[in-house]
Amino acid sequence: MYLELLILIQIDKSPKHGYEIKKEIQKDLGYLMDVNHNMLYPTLRKFTDEGFVRKHRNEQEGRPNQYVYEITEAGREKIANLINEFTEKDAKHQIEFMVRVSLFDRISKEDRNRILHRRKKDLEALLSDIERRLDEEGDGLFRDEVLRYSVSQVQGELAWIDRLASSLTDG
Q1: Beta strands in 11-102 (DSSP E)
Q2: What pLDDT sits at residue 2?
Q3: Which residues of the chain are under the pLDDT cut of 50?
Q4: Contact between residue 100 and residue 83 where contact means Cβ atoms under 8 Å apart
Q5: Transcription regulator PadR N-terminal domain location, by residue (predicted)?
Q6: Distance from the Cα of residue 52 to its chain's centroid
Q7: Taking the CA atoms of the chain, what radius of gyration do you get in angstroms?
Q8: How many helices (H) and strands (E) does the chain have?
Q9: To 5 degrees, how large is the angle CA 35–CA 95–CA 27?
Q10: Residue 61, pLDDT score
């Protein structure tokens, strides 16, 4: 779902052709993900069919035609729906969460808090599970090292979420 959201956000910023969309997503969030043509173009086709974007052919002399995608009002509504759709299943996926946080300026404080709370709840359950596995008899030093590292990552994200939540109540 996050890829659909990122594609629509790029088109909402300004009309773009496929390569520009891909380039902008990777510039913003490339360290988290890679966008390939097999994901991008079928999604653009689907959005065109569903009326979320319009496609205009840009004729180029001596080069293949280029299609430029432009957001529709239905596409803007779809963006709002996708940002706010943050299920318990989504909360388990860091990239789904990170994309939502990167778009917090587009949603209400109440929805921001709901998303943070849902992710925090999932991370607390994950932390408990990892700590339980650490207490069990392990398969060796390196397994335990990976689990301890995982604990520190989860604790770091929980602290970050607490800071974000605090800034929402302070601001």
Answers
A1: 16-17, 53-58, 66-71
A2: 87
A3: none
A4: yes
A5: 7-80
A6: 19
A7: 20
A8: 8, 3
A9: 45
A10: 84
